[in-house]
Amino acid sequence: MILPSTAPDALTRAVDTLSAGGLVALPTETVYGLAGLSTSAGSIAKIYEAKRRPHTNPLISHVSGIEMAERFVIMDPVSRRLAQAMWPGPLTLILPLRPGGIDRSSTNGQELAAIRAPAGFAHQVITRLDAPLAAPSANTSGKISPTTAQHVAEDLGARVDLIIDGGPASLGVESTVVRVLPDGVAILRPGALSADMVAELAGVPLIGAGAGDNELSPGTLQSHYAPDAAMRLNADHVQPGEVLLNFGARQIAGTRQAAAVLDLSPKGDLSEAARNLFTYLHRADETGAAMIAVAPIPQSGIGVAINDRLQRAAAPRD
Ligand code: TXA
Ligand code: MG
Question: What class of enzyme is it (predicted)?
Fold first, then answer.
């Protein structure tokens, strides 16, 4: 069931469904999230089941802001400064849990949790509930992330109790996952907020992820974001029948033989490319093509997150 976020009863329906232990797909500024109560082992079990997600991959808990976060986790001064600057927004912080509160089945039993305050309709729902929501991206584990309500409906269908349609996501790639350590900040997953921006706002140096952090953030290891078609990156030519995923109206040899040409941003704007990325991967699949050739994308700003998603989408699959 899809309900527009502008419907008069949208907020009440979403809150009631969640309070009753149900799952609601909610629009956020990054991608659509599959939300359930972070404090309920039953809701969390339903999320893992609906996504077919391995339990070893922990979930982000979404809060309304710093005040709610402090009820569930302990915030160090640098994390608090980042949250003050960026929340609500595309920043996820890894923080130690307080006893009780967030159910440990959402963190793979760990005492560190991922916490973010999303913008948009999700923010209103969390504020009204006055409780944190566990919400991974609302797609089957390993598949393309959803940036529209239609993507969610096509992928999860009846596995979700309610889908709120807030239109296309304004950023289009997931939040940046950050861990503050004694000697600097580590980026565990590149995202909509650039690493340079994180370092600048934090006022401490960027450092590599600590030993064990990749195991802590297993969602960043495997093949992920995968379309049905295979993918070839940094393509300088197109072969007959391939879909070309272009950027900045580049001249690519063999373009005329492409099954379809989709340009992430003809004017070469990386934010526009991020917004279009997952929608265009969905569209490329709809052509039925067996291969997507992807033009080079600049590795700067949000381009780092775009290339991260493309590399995982192109990674060998089991
Ligand atoms: O923008 C986003 O972050 C979206 C929207 C819906 O908020 N959510 C999202 O969730 O992308 P998900 O579950 O698809 O990705 C969460 C990422 C994964 O890479 C996971 O491994 C990592 O965060 N993560 C979650 N909990 C963690 C923890 N306790 N420690 C380290 N990494 C964690
Ligand atoms: Mg995801």
Answer: transferase
